UniProtKB/TrEMBL annotation:
UniProt keyword annotations, A-Z: ATP-binding, Nucleotide-binding
Keyword Nucleotide-binding among UniProt keywords: yes
Stretches assigned to the ATP-grasp domain: 380-449
Classification via PROSITE patterns: ATP_GRASP
Annotated signal peptide: none
Matches recorded under InterPro entries: ATP-grasp, YheC/D
Name under which the protein is recorded: YheC/YheD family protein
Length: 455
């Protein structure tokens, strides 16, 4: 059941009151975020329109770290009431006063606000917090983050793909602990590895035909041989994201032309800034020999690289586009959002972080297949994206959501070329605010169900 949690000025200490519960047994203990508190409970007099728990200011501060009313779900276990769920967002911490979680800070604040209404208590944990049983909680009224101690989330969603090297080892250990305890509901970190994901997906006959030929290179000499044999490929770091370090390599006679994007505003600078400036320049170079390719390999600092056949993308006004399907995982996966990503003319990638723009997917699917076939084509894209989710859930267990990147060739053939275990929401901000909000609310609803509070 879902109940409002309200602060009552007339209550003191651990005295609480409840209303609107009919014949439910009153609690003498409250369990929240792994903490048990003994309470003295009475029924609130008068006509109650909604179910509510009234607590003193002191108890609200001690138990919830909150100074305002909000909503939580309740699991009644006799005289013990478990309140929740407490949903942890696991992310890297940055040395920034107003953006301590980088570009995800705003999304975390929105999730906290929506959670207050839907009945999910949002906290953020960074490397070291799991061991310390501490977390950051957002106060929407004061617009500040405060620290809560001795708190254990019921469920945790990893929101950072790659952690700063000074935090990486601690993050790895804590995420492994959370997974072992069954609390981590994001695909494991190794699923951020494009090569590992490709091998899992290609094991499924339903998906194999929709995957571009992909290999793994470990040297410049091997890369030279691959490009000369395959003519047109994309080269990516296995753990890369947001269009960083992506190279388009094409065979031109006996040489190789390399195109790549260089950020005008460094990616590391943008993480600390509220201004999103994805401006890039496209640079090219020519490689003529295996020795030159080895020198190029060393400059990129790649130890391994995924080499993927180039898929010819459909274009709109000379601009290539592909798609991001945001899918929530469950017994029957649900497509939460469909976005077309339109790159700049001559761009190497369509990624939003390298200057791409977000558009409604249906409009651009229609440009390829026509008005009469657009619904069937989108249904097929839904089917493939859902099959990706089911395949990975069968392999790794329960997780909340996934971003599936799809390509649609001019002939209408669909390819799956990338999967994002921690999909962002920036592209949804470029579309309808309602779509972005719906995607965040769906994430919260997943957490409520997965923790057993949704019954």
């Amino acid at each position: 059941m879902r109940m409002s949690v309200k602060i009552a000025a007339n209550l003191r200490g651990n005295h609480i009151q409840v209303s609107g519960l009919g014949g439910h047994k009153l609690p003498n203990k409250l369990l929240f975020g792994g903490r048990m508190t003994t309470v003295q409970c009475t029924r609130r007099t008068g006509q109650a329109k909604t179910s509510a728990i009234y607590v003193s200011t002191a108890l609200a501060s001690a138990l919830f770290g909150a100074k305002m009313s909000f909503v939580l779900h309740v699991q009644s276990r006799g005289s013990v009431w478990k309140l929740g769920p407490v949903v942890g967002l696991y992310a890297d911490r940055l040395a920034s006063a107003d953006r301590q979680f980088g570009e995800q800070t705003r999304m975390f604040e929105e999730l906290s606000t929506y959670g207050q209404a839907l009945g999910a208590f949002i906290v953020v944990q960074t490397p070291g917090d799991v061991g310390a049983k501490s977390a950051q909680v957002y106060d929407g009224g004061a617009r500040t983050w405060t620290t809560m101690q001795n708190l254990t989330p019921d469920l945790v969603l990893r929101r950072t793909g790659t952690f700063h090297k000074s935090h990486a080892q601690v993050a790895k250990q804590e995420l492994q602990q959370l997974m072992a305890r069954g609390r981590l509901h994001t695909l494991p970190s190794q699923c951020s590895n494009k090569w590992a994901l490709y091998q899992v997906l290609r094991s499924t006959s339903e998906l194999r035909a929709h995957l571009p030929t992909t290999t793994l290179c470990t040297s410049g000499t091997q890369l030279f041989q691959e490009v000369m044999a395959r003519r047109d490929v994309y080269v990516k770091p296995p753990g890369g994201s947001q269009g960083v370090s992506v190279y388009h390599m094409t065979r031109k006679g006996h040489a190789i032309q390399v195109s790549f994007e260089r950020r005008i505003v460094p990616r590391s600078t943008e993480r600390y800034s509220k201004i999103f400036e994805p401006r890039t320049t496209v640079e090219t170079l020519t490689i003529r020999t295996p020795q030159e390719c080895t020198a190029f390999w060393k400059r990129t600092r790649l130890a391994r690289a995924v080499v993927q056949d180039t898929i010819e993308l459909a274009q709109s006004d000379g601009k290539p586009y592909d798609f991001r399907w945001l899918v929530q995982s469950s017994d029957e996966p649900s497509v939460v959002a469909r976005v077309a990503r339109v790159g700049q003319r001559g761009a190497v990638t369509t990624n939003i972080h390298t200057g791409g723009a977000a558009h409604e997917a249906e409009e651009l699917v229609q440009k390829v297949v026509g008005r009469d076939s657009v619904k069937d084509k989108i249904a097929k894209m839904d089917e493939l994206a859902s099959a990706v989710v089911k395949t990975l859930a069968n392999r790794y267990g329960a997780f909340a959501e996934l971003g599936v990147d799809l390509a649609l060739r001019p002939d209408g053939r669909i390819f799956i070329f990338e999967v994002n275990p921690t999909p962002g929401r920036r592209m949804l901000r470029m579309l309808s605010p309602d779509t972005r909000r719906l995607s965040l609310e769906c994430l919260l609803e997943y957490a409520i169900r997965a923790t057993g509070f949704g019954g």
